[in-house]
Amino acid sequence: MSGPPHVALRPLWLCRACAAPWPCATARLTLLREYADDRVTLLVYLGGMLHDAAGQLPRLSPHDGPEPGQLFDRFLGWAVPRRSPRGAVHDPGLAYDRTNDR
Questions:
Q1: Which end of the chain is flanked by fewer CB atoms within 10 Å, N or C?
Q2: How far apart are CA 61 and CA 76, in angstroms?
Q3: What is the C-alpha separation between 74 and 25, in angstroms, rounded?
Q4: CA 22 to CA 25: how far, in whole Å?
Q5: What Cα–Cα distance (Å) separates residue 57 from each residue in 36, 49, 52, 61?
Q6: Angle 58-63-67 (CA atoms, 0-180°, nearest 5)?
């Protein structure tokens, strides 16, 4: 990957590289690749980031900051495998092709 890393600019919680809300799409793909074999550790890491953001973002915008559910979706919801009504599991980590990592 070239260019600046897609990491959080705190306390704004924007991506330092692309200015999208962190974790941006590139950060999500990078995190899925880095934690491909350890989803639990990824979720613990993202939970820590959620905790920090939940404390910092309301201070910046106390009246119109993100709701708790929005923060969950932004930081953790995308990384948690979900079941469809028919029982199929959608796992964003399975979409990542690890053949190029070897």
A1: C
A2: 21
A3: 11
A4: 8
A5: 29, 12, 9, 7
A6: 60
pLDDT for residue 25 = 98
The two structure tokens encoding residue 37: 């074999």
pTM of the entire predicted model: 0.79
Length in residues, the chain = 102
Q: What are phi and psi of 90, to 5 degrees?
A: -100, 115
pLDDT in tens, 40-65: 999 999 999 999 999 999 999 888 88
Q: What three-state secondary structure class fits 98?
A: helix
d(CA 24, CA 39): 18
What the block records as the tokens of 58 is 């309301």
Residue type, 39: R
Alpha helices in the chain (DSSP H): 25-34, 39-60, 68-75
Instruction: In whole angstroms, give the CA distance from residue 95 to residue 60.
Output: 35
DSSP 3-state of 83: strand
